[in-house]
Model the fold of this input.
Amino acid sequence: MALQDTSYTDDSIRSLDWKEHIRMRPGMYIGKLGDGASADDGIYVLVKEIVDNSIDEHMMGHGKRIDITISDNKVIVRDYGRGIPLGKVIDCVSKINTGGKYDSGAFQKSVGLNGVGTKAVNALSSYFSVQSFRDGKTKKVEFSKGEITKDHKETTSTDKDGTLMIFEPDNTIFKNYRYIPEFLTEQVWNYAFLNSGLTINFNGQNYLSKNGLKDLLERKADVENILYPIMHFREEDFEVAITHGHQYGEEYYSFVNGQYTTQGGTHLGAFKEAVVKTLREFYKKDFDASDVRTSITAAIAVRVQEPVFESQTKTKLGSTEIAPGGQGMRSFVSENMLKVLDNYLHKNPATAEALLKKILQNERERKDMAGVRKLAQQRAKKANLHNKKLRDCRLHLTDDKDEKFDTTIFITEGDSASGSITKSRNVELQAVFSLRGKPLNCYGLKKKVVYENEEFNLLQHALDIEEGLDNLRFNKVVVATDADVDGMHIRLLLLTFFLQFFPDLVRNGHVYILQTPLFRVRNKKETIYCYSDEERQRAIAKLGNKPEITRFKGLGEISPGEFEAFIGENMRLDPIILTKETSIEKLLKYYMGKNTPERQEFIIDNLYIEKDITTEEKVVELDEEEEEEAA
Done:
């Protein structure tokens, strides 16, 4: 007779209120939490959710300015729209499924439709306040973790209509977080590009765009090396900018109702198809799709009613129609592209000729590499069976369409460093790729070298980026080298490889540098790991009485037991960020090209002598066996 399970009763069923559910399952509302090292980490989503409301007001014709101030951990957003109706201020930030965007007549083609974003920010903030200014009156309410802490009375006000929101992310949920200015600047610029006529004042600086996506491409592309002037088209609910350069890969920026869809979606897929189809018809040649799109830099923005995104964070569009019962997304994009691009090329024969030359050049290079690629793929298949360089993990970024696993691959140099990471890693989500020494300096070389060089070819296959980022197996590609001269050189060589042949891997925020501690400062009661000399000094001051100081000369000297803490939840990563001022060609030529007088002068002008650790401090340098015992 089967035993009856008495543990599952009426008392087992719980109903969570809105803030409890958001705090218990924050990933459902803002994606991954992170510490701010990635542009899609939760703290940036919080900023976006608040600013989106102000953008929607501007789109409806209310307010031409938004003020954003972010200092330390406090975010302040002030818009000059209509302001929240004063009687609904509390409801709009603390009741799920409450908002003004359900009636499409009030918010046509809005970014946020589900009435969730602001409530998520409220629930996930240690401090949150909302103040509405409307018709000479104002109402303010303060919260902590979704709970009202102070409900101010409605009073008169001389301030302009609009809304002021202030929040501080809860550091018990977003641990050790920091806002990286470059990521915030990119967010603000994207809002400006997509909303001509809107001025955003971010930390005292105005951001304004007159030419929309053309301005975006001028900021993103290396304008000195593009093959033809940027083609820019604006139609109702549709805007596109296109150019080609000399870089490898394809670079796209796609937007829906002002939302940056970092993972693309149906609108981007339709755009890629439409570009190929239009150019095949214009030139009357059946080009290979990759020959048309290689080296393209393009941006597309569409506005649709009631967009369907694949998650609350709205990074990928799922809509196949541009409105309920309306035209299909594919035909909408295709018809617009055929009209504007075909007309432009007929009127601008110089651009049409430059574009044709680039397509034919791509075709020649692809055919030239075909033989080399085939041999390399055969070699890689054999290596995959017994690839000693790759210690793979069990889950990968592309394993599940419904769930994106936050996977990491560490690229290390030498057996000792890779051994320590391998022993302490999370085998479910973290992989290790071991280099046998310094990789080849590939600056100025053709992509053939990726297939001819066994190490590069194996790394390319480990990441699965040969055909672009769609099959990328790891969300984070982490360069983990010693913090000495040789380690720095290996970093440069690997970054040269990625920037030269797979720049979109860097542009899309997948490449990082691992920070590992330089010192361990400890006494009998406490151990502190220090990542800089300043941290070491603070640790010494804290512990006092001449603590023991260990200087880690390399990754291999850190025991697996300790390494587990450095690549776990509190892992410190420095993202590789490409800014407007970054020209990849100039950057690589300066650092990785032949020696130049400019580089010699820079080195001489910036030489400095690093002081030794004072003899008053007891310094210990242990070998691996002693280190493991000490740990």
